[in-house]
Amino acid sequence: MANSLQDQLRNSGLVSAKQAHNAKAEKRKQKRRQRAGVADEDAARRAAIEQQKAEKTARDRELNAARDAESRANALAAQIRELVTLNRIDDDVPDPVRHHFEADGRVQSLYMSAEAHRALIAGRLAIVRDGGAFALVPTAVADKIAERDATAVVVRNTGTDTPPDETDPYSEYKIPDDLMW
Fold it and tell me: pTM of the full predicted structure?
């Protein structure tokens, strides 16, 4: 009753025992090949998933590094802004002096008192970039700003005279300190 089709064919004489054995072996080999193919597909799929994870991790690291760099730059800009705001020398004098200086390849000007102008020339004050404008601050503050961003300090005079060059044909002619241009 519960004879398999293979047993029934063997009993009826249509198939020999050897043929039945070969058919069973071939069936097993077929299943093994099929499982190996699925395993190969699974391994390829797993490798692709691992590669995607690695790429995503690398991308995330790059994004985090960019965010960190941006936050550090913003923090430095905020520190510079705070230093300028707290130490700015505001001169609202009735008779200001106009001081010309070069910034970004252009001649800029800043109005200040005559006393502040002398201090700027002597090196006690400096001109720094304050966003889109310029501000007058003490030299010590300008040094702190330069530690954070050297491009923010536009004018910083040393206040020391350099010895004249002997080969300079105009060395006999001194340029006055209060020359306005």
Answer: 0.57
